[in-house]
Structure formats: C-alpha cells, structure tokens
TrEMBL record:
Keyword DNA-binding: yes
Protein name listed in UniProt: site-specific DNA-methyltransferase (cytosine-N(4)-specific)
InterPro entries on file: DNA_methylase_N4/N6, MeTrfase_CN4_CS, RM_Methyltransferase, SAM-dependent_MTases_sf
Protein family (similarity comment): Belongs to the N(4)/N(6)-methyltransferase family. N(4) subfamily.
Residues of the DNA methylase N-4/N-6 domain: 23-237
EC number(s) recorded for this UniProt protein: 2.1.1.113
C-alpha cells in the first residue's frame, strides 16, 4: 500500500475490508460510554449499560486482532465514566474492566501508560479530586512484538502531554504529540500500516503523514475507519487524503461482559484504625484484595462512621487489582477516584472509596489540600462597564433575567458593591460579592456555643453527638442549645447601611415607585440616573460569558437547616403535617423535604423563608440568614481558595502521602490540634 486510506463506514465493515495480518500498529480512542451522541443509529457508546459497551468493544477488538501482524501492537486510549452526573456517584472503572475482558479474550497486555494532561479541564467538584489523566493500554497479539525493545530500554509508563486545541468542535480529539509518542515506542519499517478504527478528526493520520515526511523518513501509511460524514470531510481536508473507500454495513453480534465478584480464596483483612477513615497502601495484589474483602465485613462497617472515606492503594499492582475494585459496588461502596501516584516514570493506584448511602454525605475537606494559584489574577475594574450587564436570578422557584440599572456603592478597587437591578418594570437593591472574596463570604458563617460562647469548629454532626469541646454542653437537642450563628462583619456592615434607607436588599418594588422614593433618605447612596441601555457595553458582556447571578448568600449544609427547623417545630409542639397544613397547597410535596437530613432533603429558598417566619413566629436567627441573597460575578477565574489538586499525585514519599490523604477526612477539631502541635 503506497497511500493513506479512509474507509467510510461502520467499524466492523471497515475491519472486514482490511486483510488479516497486515497492520503493524493500531492506535485509537473510541467513543466513551454515554459521553457524546454522534446522531446515527447503532453508534458505539450509547449502549444501555457499561457491560454491553465493554462486550461490544471486546468483539470489535477481537476482529482488530486478526488484522494485526504477529508482532503488531495496539495502543488503546479510553476514558472512564461516573454512573451518575451528580451526587455520590460510582466511578465505573470501565477502561480497566475492558482491558480485563480483552485479556480473557486473548490479548496480551504489555503496559498501562498514564497520560497526564497538564492543561486538563478545570472542574468545580468539591467532594472528590478533579480528573487529570487517562490510561493508554498497550496490547499485543504475541509475546514477541515490536513494543518489547522499547519497554526493556525505557520502562517509562507515565507521559505528560497537554491537550491540543483544534479548530473543530469535536472536543474528544487526543493530541498529535500523544500519538507521536506512542508511535515512537515501536520500530516501524517501510511499508508498515498504522490503523485507527475510530478515526474521528484524523489525528492518527496527520501524525503518520508528518512522521513519513519528517524525521522518521519511512514509507509508513495510515488506514482510518470513520462512519461520520462530517468527520470524513475533516480527515480528507486535514490529512489530504483522496482515496476514500465506502463500505456497506455488516451485521454482527456481541454479548454483555459478565462481571466477577471478589475472589473467594483470599482471606479478609479489616482495617479498624480510625472511625473517620483509613489510609493503607498494600504491597501486593493479595494484600490489596484482602483489604477490599475486609471492607465488606460487619466488623469493618460497624467500626467506621457512615461518612468515613477510605484510601486503599497497591504498589505492586496487576490488572486484576484494577478490575476487582469495581466489585466493591456490590458490597455497598462507591469508587470516587482512582488516584495515580507517580515518580515521573512509574506509577501505582490509590482508590478513594466511600459508603454507598443516601443518609449522609461523607466528610471530605478539600480546602486543606488546594493548590494556591501561581499567578494572582488582577483586573482593573475602573476600565470595566457594569451598567446594563445581565443579572440572572436563580434564588427563587423560577429563574428570571434583569439588568444592572445603577451602581450605588463600590469596593475600594471600584468593583460594584451595592447596585440597583431592573427586572421588567420592577427594581431591587442588591449586594454584590467581590470576586476575590465570594467563596469565603458564602462559607463565612461562624457557630458559637450558647453557654460558653466559644467558637465551634465542627458546627453540626448529623450522625453523632454534638458536644461543646470547651464546656461539655450537648448542642442541637432543643432551641436553647442551638448554637449562636454569626455572619461576617463585612455583610453586617452593608445590611446596617441598607436598613437605614427606605429599601431592604432584595426587596422588589415598582420602578416608578423606586424613582419617586429615591429622593428620600438613602444614607450614603446617591440618586439614580437614566440609562441608554442600547449603548451600554455592560449589556454586551454576556457575549463574553460574564454576568451576575442572584443566589442564596450563604452555602450551608442541608442537615444543619433540617435540624434547626426540626427544633423550631418541636418547640411549637407541631408535627410535620401541621407545618405542611400552614402552607399553600402547592407546597404539599415540598415542606417535608426541609426536615430530612439525608440526600432527599432540601433547603427552603428565600421566598419560602417568609412563610416559615410566619409559621414559627420567628424573624431572626438562621431563618433570617437563609433569606439573605447576593449577586455573584460569573466569569472564568481561578478559585480564590486555590485549585483542586487533581487525581495525579507526583513525587510524594509514603509518609508525605499518608499525611496528605488523612487531611481529607480527619475532623476539623482533631486536625487543628495536630497543626498546633506542629
């Protein structure tokens, strides 16, 4: 073959078209399970279950193996998937389960390479580590293959290669440097063929072309199989291929992969060191599986709190280690992360596990391990125009949009602090959180013992006793033992300023009434001016992805709210049904959720608080705090608390690693005592 080829059609039909024992290297990244809909019938990745997806790929890759030369190799890049998008969801371990079934089907697994992405996509997740890497499996048809020489020589199983921007919308494109890195690990000869059965935008093809015309200088060619018409056009343009072969679809059958339970011939080793969590790095596969089996025992489950998290790793790992972790899902656990610990060339896994329960969220203190940004972002707010900027209100039952009508007060750096928002003929005064303080303000509530007035580090434990560590008072058992809750001084200052005026923050009034009353007492706030909305640069900022969002001012754990409302209800000798009866009919299925402390619970929105105040005849305390709203500036920025460190951990010794992981679950009081000793 003396030219590159595109086979336009289904992957099975495309593989059938290729001669057996003709391909030297296959390299691909197939569609991930439930990741993207390519809008054609029978597409791979939209199967009903991971087991169907795995079974289908095993069948396809069995056909691919027939096309490889006896010493050929197959580089497979595939990403993982969480069972659900939100909540305490299970990491499905799809890549490693697929690899396990491929080995059972006859493949030889030479290596698992970790591809770390230094410029990985940022994530707002707070209850686990951000995903920063993907595995690349090196499969061979026979023990003697063209990858062996490189592996014996280099033994490098970690690569750090940034994601590559492309002009196409297909965001799953893997970078050309990654493909080149893999192809440089084999000794290619003149006439060799490189196959990509899921070609996408043709990354493999362009790399083969560049290598052929560059330093490789060997007559190596590519075959790319692609079904999508749009992608075939991209490949043709990008790689410059004229030879396109159309193939008709050929029916084929596959079966779901049959998953296995933990092996029964290994003894259990239940770790019972700390009821809040465990960290243990096993030396080998047998010890690792013993720990997993130990986690399934009553002894282990009864000893640990339901909100504990566990970090279990294995240094001398094998494919079975990575496969059987998924089985813990059947025993009441979920895999939240597979951490990779690397010294730059070799790696081993550590799994973050938690109980699969909806009763309570696990304790995960991410803020303790965040990485400070290298460069502080600074913007000159004096050069920004905010008048006319969009404001999205998501604090109520339905969302709505408004515009910034006037700025009444500013921070010292000229960022808006108090503004007037127009909402379709209505207006309201709103407090704006500064972008450099918003995360701290939203989590800035402080709790104090009502007897000794000392600050409580852990304000509420939903599954244990709440005892003041200073005076021994048992908290949260009646309204007299509810902790005193204090807001940040900065919030109280603006509240006091606004309460001196005729308007309260967030209060909606008619725009006409607002302008009539604006000449009254506004403390330090000046009067309003009319605005030419069409000429406003602020109105165009939405195009740049910048706008304000009106939301609840404070982030507060739902179980705290549920316990607070429960104590208020009991103090009035009311049942939940009695509370429900005080609300309009549309609240019938809502109110009960406010008193639940499990994952079925919810927090009343600010407009609900007005009704709760009337029901309980209470207008202060947590109810008043829950009613507060503020505007948050929505823009692309680094978290002021620092960056999520991600699931790739580099150059930590055993002691450093253990200390790092324990920070994530040790209760706040114990953690502070430890830090004080240091």
């Amino acid at each position: 073959m003396k030219k590159d080829i595109i086979i336009h059609g289904d992957v099975w039909a495309g593989l059938e078209f290729i001669k057996d024992n003709s391909v030297s290297v296959a390299i691909t990244s197939p569609p991930y399970w439930k990741q993207r809909d390519y809008n054609f019938e029978g597409q791979i990745g939209q199967e009903e279950s991971p087991e169907e997806y795995i079974g289908r790929l095993v069948t396809i890759f069995n056909k691919l193996r027939q096309k490889l030369k006896e010493d050929g190799v197959f580089f497979l890049n595939i990403g993982d998937k969480y069972l659900n998008q939100y909540g305490k969801s299970h990491l499905m371990m799809i890549p490693y389960r697929l690899a396990y079934h491929m080995v059972k089907d006859g493949w030889i697994l030479e290596e698992i390479i970790i591809w770390y992405k230094p410029n990985h996509m940022p994530s707002s997740v707070k209850d686990r580590f951000t995903n920063t890497y993907e595995p690349i499996f090196v499969f061979a048809k026979r023990k003697e293959n063209i990858y062996k020489d490189f592996y014996k020589r280099e033994k490098k199983s970690v690569v750090e290669i940034p994601l590559q921007q492309t002009p196409w919308k297909h965001t799953a494109v893997y970078p050309e440097n990654l493909v080149q890195e893999m192809l440089e690990r084999v000794n290619l000869n003149n006439g060799d063929i490189v196959l990509d059965p899921f070609a996408g935008t043709g990354t493999t093809g362009i790399v083969v072309k560049n290598l052929r015309n560059g330093f490789l200088s060997k007559e190596v060619y590519s075959i790319m199989i692609e079904k999508g018409n749009e992608f075939v056009k991209i490949i043709k343009e990008r790689v410059g291929i004229e030879n396109i072969i159309q193939v008709r679809e050929i029916p084929y059958t596959w079966h779901s992969a049959k998953e296995e339970n933990l092996p029964s011939n290994i003894d259990s080793l239940p770790l019972v060191n700390d009821k809040h969590g465990e960290v243990h790095i096993a030396q080998n596969y047998e010890e690792f599986l013993s720990i997993l089996k130990g986690m399934c025992t009553k002894e282990f489950k009864n000893f640990h709190r339901e909100d504990a998290i566990y970090f279990v790793g294995v240094k001398e790992w094998n494919l079975q280690s990575l496969y059987y972790v998924h089985a813990v899902y059947k025993y009441g656990y979920v895999v939240r992360n597979m951490l990779v610990v690397s010294n730059g060339s070799k790696w081993y896994p550590i799994f973050m596990l938690s109980r699969d329960t909806t009763k309570v969220a696990y304790k995960f203190y991410l803020d303790r391990v965040r990485i400070n940004p290298k460069i502080k972002e600074e913007r000159d707010w004096t050069k920004e125009e905010f008048i006319g900027m969009k404001v999205r209100d998501i604090s109520g039952k339905t969302s709505r949009e408004g515009q910034v009508m006037e700025i009444l007060d500013k921070y010292p750096d000229e960022f808006p602090k108090i503004i007037v928002v127009q909402w379709n003929g209505e207006a309201s005064i709103e407090f704006v959180m500064h972008p450099e303080k918003d995360e701290f303000l939203m989590e800035g509530l402080r709790f104090f013992c009502p007897r000794c007035n000392n600050e409580l580090i852990d304000p509420y434990d939903p599954i244990g006793k709440n005892i003041c560590s200073f005076c021994g008072l048992e908290l949260w058992i009646n309204v007299e033992t509810i902790p005193i809750i204090k807001e940040p001084q900065e919030i109280l200052e603006y509240v006091n300023d606004l309460e001196k005026s005729d308007y309260l923050v967030g209060q909606i009034v008619d725009v006409v009434d607002f302008k009539i009353k604006k000449n009254g007492s506004f403390s330090k706030f000046h009067s309003l001016d009319r605005i030419n909305w069409g000429a406003s640069p602020g109105a165009r900022k939405l195009v740049e992805g910048e706008y304000f969002t009106k939301m609840r001012l404070y982030r507060i754990d739902q179980p705290i709210v549920a316990q607070y409302l429960t104590l208020l209800r009991k103090s009035k000798n009311m049942r939940i049904q009695d509370v429900i009866s005080k609300f309009p009919k549309e609240y019938y299925h809502t109110v009960g959720h406010w008193f639940r402390k499990d994952f079925g619970g919810s927090i009343p929105i600010p407009e609900d608080i007005k009704l709760l105040k009337k029901v309980f005849n209470i207008h202060d305390g947590l109810l008043r705090i829950l009613e507060r709203t503020a505007l948050k500036f929505q823009t692309v920025k680094t978290s002021v608390k620092g960056k999520n460190p991600g699931d790739y951990i580099k150059n930590k010794n055993d002691e450093e690693l253990s200390t790092f992981l324990k920070k994530l679950y040790v209760p706040s009081t114990e953690y502070l005592l430890t830090m004080c000793k240091k």
